[in-house]
Amino acid sequence: MRNIHRLVVAVVFILHLVGLSGCKLKTAQNNTAQHKNIAVVISTLNNPWFVVLAETAAEKARELGYRATIFDSQNNSAKEAEHFDNIIAMGYNAILFNPTDADGSVLNVKRAKLAGIPTFCMDREINSKDAAVTQLLSDNFTGCVKLGQYFVRQMNKTGNYVEILGLVGDNNTWNRSNGFHSVVDEFPDIKMVAQQSADFDRNKAMEVMETILQAKPNIDAVFCGNDAMAMGAYQAILAAGKTGKIKVFGFDGAEDAMQGIADRKITATVMQFPVLMAQTSAIMADAYIKGERDFPSRTPIEVELVTFENVRQYLPQN
Hints:
Shape: elongated
Number of helices: 11
Largest sheet: 6 strands, parallel
Low-confidence stretches: 1-13, 15-33
Number of strands: 12
Structural class: alpha/beta
Strand content: 15-25%
Order of helices and strands: HHEHEHEHEEHEHEHEHEHEHEE
Helix content: 40-55%
Radius of gyration: 20 Å
């Protein structure tokens, strides 16, 4: 299958990039992973996409011989800080981290670093170049440039749209929004009539879309910062009897969004690869614990535009 092959190639490339070939891993210091612990701290488990990220990271860590524990921050920076307090007190050996806030999470990572615990950021960025060992990040800006180009074609260069943002403190929110606007804002007949945050949450997005539809009924499209919000927006559109009249665009490549595209409920999304990010983060943490120190500060992961024309190749094969 083409995408599995692409993931394999991507993993090989990343491992080569940071010098973590299989040979090097075997010849690293003879430290054993036995009785060592890796923490997996996730912004929220109230989103299937992050559940995949968390469980894959923990599974890979266990496969490498570590005890792995998942911590759910519930999109709450105070809860995240408590997790770091406990992780530092318990002397974990590494943290695979999905932050709640680009600025607010920096202090937590620095506290862990001061305690001798390396942190590897997954999917979400913190605004520090040296607090984490490395940050594995999807190319959100470029992905939304591709989405914006497809959006313009689908809109025939004219119409009204709504943007539903994710968490305002998350860099992914603005990288996606800025990538999208870098294309769409060049077309003056395409007008954004509302922009509101729904915190990457499906239920909040449904409520936001319901409110917007009441105030702005003449909408042709909605661009959502992730697929959970896209599915929530679709539910509001369905309840308003406007399916087929409002195009829905998302970001993530979540399974229900893929099926939504196949069923023509969702117009397009951008596919991220959480399994790749999670597994690579665990491999890097293992290498760090065994003595490797040559890591890039950022490790970008390519994303792909998914539309009705190519969605079949992303759906589970029967």
